[in-house]
Write a structure and sequence with these properties.
47% helix, single chain, alpha/beta, seven-stranded mixed β-sheet, 274 residues
């Protein structure tokens, strides 16, 4: 298990590991399997879920960055070399999906901004990870795609739904039916990514981007994130009580008092998330 508040490295196997670090209010999770273009094994997915759960509980972490080791890939998808042993039968698939679901729930449910810092390939399951982040920033040489149709794989309803939300049904169908790779410029055009930057500027840009959010009021960010996530749901499924609560939490907080005082005193506010 991870000790809260300390940088951590979880070694899962000789073929891949998950790295985590915390610095200046930013938690960073790195998929480190560069020999396989950061392809995800079940063990890596399980460890990634642990890291995200730790980031969720740590009040010092205000923004989370998800990235991949090396310069060739963000995450190239699931480790296909392990499918024969780990995903060959319906029973194995159920067990495999438990870890994937745990990670997805932890990533999508965290009440803090999440940024996918993408360099190189972002394919299949890797794209699904990026879709579960709030924002996606990539390099000019990044490539995106879902090769499910070339592998006989069914891409999950949740991931497809997220693609439809971002890109629309027509583009999603093209992406899935052709199984082709999209360039960074195409990804920006169809709304798949928020920003495209030069490769040598990626880390500085993303960390500066994150630092801006770290300085803002955590409860206001939580409120915005929760309400936006609810609002994209079908109207009948929206949790109106939750949306009202997170707004009330802001107005009843110490940070609201601090924000008003800082404005009147013409200084930068110091928010504490309470």
């Amino acid at each position: 298990m991870i000790k809260r508040g300390k940088p951590a490295e979880i070694t899962m196997s000789e073929e891949g590991k998950i790295l985590s670090a915390k610095k200046n209010g930013v938690g960073t999770l790195t998929f480190s399997n560069p020999e396989r273009l950061n392809a995800m094994s079940r063990e890596m997915t399980r460890a990634a879920a642990e890291v995200m759960e730790d980031f969720t509980q740590d009040p010092e972490v205000r923004v989370v960055i998800i990235t991949g080791a090396g310069k060739k890939a963000f995450i190239s998808g699931g480790d296909i070399s392990k499918f024969e042993k780990a995903r060959a039968t319906p029973e194995q698939l159920v067990e495999y999906n438990k870890d994937s679901t745990r990670f997805r729930v932890a990533l999508r449910g965290i009440g803090k901004p999440t940024i996918a810092m993408i360099r190189g390939w972002c394919l299949g399951g890797g794209l699904a990870v990026a879709l579960n982040c709030d924002m996606r920033i990539c390099t000019e040489d990044s490539q995106f795609g879902v090769p499910a149709a070339r592998l006989g794989i069914g891409y999950g309803a949740e991931s497809l739904g997220q693609l439809v939300e971002l890109c629309g049904p027509a583009v999603t169908k093209e992406l899935m039916f052709t199984a082709r790779r999209y360039t960074a410029a195409e990804a920006l055009r169809i709304g798949l990514v928020n920003q495209v930057v030069q490769a040598n500027m990626l880390e500085d840009f993303v960390h500066s981007y994150a630092a801006t959010m770290v300085d803002n009021a955590p409860l206001s960010i939580v409120a915005a994130k929760r309400i936006i996530d609810e609002y994209v749901k079908d109207e009948k499924e929206r949790d109106t009580a939750l949306m009202e609560k997170v707004v009330a939490d802001c107005f009843g907080s110490e940070d609201y008092i601090e924000g008003r005082r800082a404005f009147m005193e013409k200084r930068r506010p110091v928010f504490k998330g309470r």
